[in-house]
What we know:
By secondary structure, the chain is an alpha+beta fold.
Amino acid sequence: xxxxxxxxxxxxxxxxxxxxxxxxxxxxxxxxxxxxxxxxxxxxxxxxxxxxxxxxxxxxxxxxxxxxxxxxxxxxxxxxxxxxxxxxxxxxxxxxxxxxxxxxxxxxxxxxxxxxxxxxxxxxxxxxxxxxxxxxxxxxxxxxxxxxxxxxxxxxxxxxxxxxxxxxxxxxxxxxxxxxxxxxxxxxxxxxxxxxxxxxxxxxxxxxxxxxxxxxxxxxxxxxxxxxxxxxxxxxxxxxxxxxxxxxxxxxxxxxxxxxxxxxxxxxxxxxxxxxxxxxxxxxxxxxxxxxxxxxxxxxxxxxxxxxxxxxxxxxxxxxxxxxxxxxxxxxxxxxxxxxx
Length: 341
């Protein structure tokens, strides 16, 4: 069999094999078998040295035409097989658009954010504005300007995070009141929400980082009855109209007189249970009339101006409102907990 007949035989065999192939991997094997560097057409061309010189151009032309034809057959078959594979995949991945879709998971505010937004709404409705201040404070603003003497236990290292002899991480948001008094003349009616720091061990009811909101009102003829009325409106707005409250005498260096504010237990309604230690009451905040020393250090005439202040941890407000018994849950970012609010 001469070289021309061999090429014709290869052509017939290749046409049949390429026609019947149904797999891309098998198609690649056939391409290599016929058109590869060691393929059958190349093998025929290596034998051209054995034929007369005048026949070589004819055999070369036939071989090149055969290569072009087989490449075209391979490309057509490849396109056909890839289309079949695509159709099969689409059939397998078919989506029933009549089925109800799965809605995306919608994010929402953290419970602490929800609570402080409620608190802000209540006081803004009462004519208060929002005041802010730095979390790194001077010892003067954090203690001295608030009538906390130099050797007061609250200034001890075991209670306060000191940065150096002058600066510390604020232990309450009351320094914002001092800054407000320094830049604003009465009448003043502000609340100061923010993060505060104390050297507490982390447990179910304590955290070295927590949140407070302080309130301050300074004007002429402000009395304790104004304080009581404001706190009562706040308590009923946050905890419900049926919530009872009471004021207990207390002591704070920056207020005089001072009072702790309790509300009737949210669980037992005042009957007594484990949450309220069977007293029927839960402490929610401290309050009192601004101490004359604080007003005088701010340059205000105590014969003209008076005021009241109050402060609460809004982590505790949230715990009482939602019945949460562990403050650590607010900081763990457990989605099972957060998605309940």
